[in-house]
Amino acid sequence: MAEAKAKEPILVVKHLKQHFPINRKFTVKAVDDISFEINAGETYGLVGESGSGKSTTGRSIIRLYKPTAGSIVFNGREIGGKMSQEDIKELRTNMQMIFQDPMACLNPRMKVLDIIAEGLDVHHAYSSQEERNEKVYQMLELVGLSREHASRYPHLFSGGQRQRIGIARALILNPDLIIADEAISALDVSIQAQVVNLMKKIQRESNIAYLFIAHDLSMVKYISDRIGVLHLGHLVESGTSDEIFSNPLHPYTKSLLSAIPSPNPIVEKKRTSLTYDYKTSGLNYEAGTEHYVSDTHYVLGTDEDFARFQAEAGMH
């Protein structure tokens, strides 16, 4: 029974919609009926171009936005609708977020010690000031910084160091799920690798789950167990990293993958980028349903679309 419970997803999102009314006649459907789940210790990568609804999805899940419709079940609790005080505490302690711009989300008037300890202070998760400070020092060392950094202000750090402070703040309450919203896109490539390797190391040690939101497909492939491709608020394809990269079915997924530059100049010279325009594609996301290629790999489309995708991929 314990084993069955361990295999239950930590997060289950079903038919999530996040609409923003602009006026009486027009509503932006930022996220329109998407479903996915994340298991403990797993990284689910969410990719797509700017404006596809990636960040909105993350903010709806952590309830920075109130979802228009749909179900969000976290640790067995429904958090998509009205929440009790107990539900709110469960969400605020066991789900955390790492934001894109590390400087914008760190209070410039607070020292690093107090920034990282904010979660501890809010939830009174310590019995003495010494215990509070010691927890912060341990977290600083875990993310590759030192105790001496605790007494400094955010403007004295580099971009990569600030992001490490953001990660330390997210980890201080030992959450089960972290939503990383474009957490590395503002950093240099070499620093990106350091931060992603740090996140993978922490995951191995703590079995934490990540929802990794990004548009850098190479980095998403490196860190993710499974990947969801988002376009115009719809999850058009989802599967394991290998399935998405070796056997993409949806034309939008193919166009994204074809845009990845190759480090080999000979291969790069021959690379051709595929173009995809939803308006001229003949596809209708709202009429489509999930068609499964395997237990983990599905693509959005009508029966006719799915047959065409399979034919184009040489599948029967």
What does this structure look like?
This protein is of the alpha/beta class. The chain has 14 helices and twelve strands. The strands form two sheets. The protein has an eight-stranded mixed sheet with strand order 6-7-8-3-9-10-12-11, with helices on both faces. Strands 2-1-4-5 form a four-stranded antiparallel sheet, covered by helices on one side. Strand 7, helix 8 and strand 8 form a beta-alpha-beta unit. The longest helix is centred in the middle third of the chain and has 18 residues. It is globular and about 65 Å long.
Structure at a glance:
The protein has 316 residues and is α/β, with parallel strands linked by helices.
Reconstruct the topology from this structure.
Layout lengths: L1 H5 L4 E11 L5 E12 L4 E5 L6 H8 L7 E6 L2 E2 L6 H10 E4 L13 H5 L1 H6 L5 H14 L16 H13 L5 E5 L7 H18 L2 E5 L3 H7 L2 E6 L2 E7 H6 L4 H8 L6 H6 L7 H4 L7 E4 L5 E4 L1 H10 L4
Parallel strand pairs: 3-8, 3-9, 6-7, 7-8
Antiparallel strand pairs: 1-2, 1-4, 4-5, 9-10, 10-12, 11-12
Helix pairs in contact: 6-7, 7-8
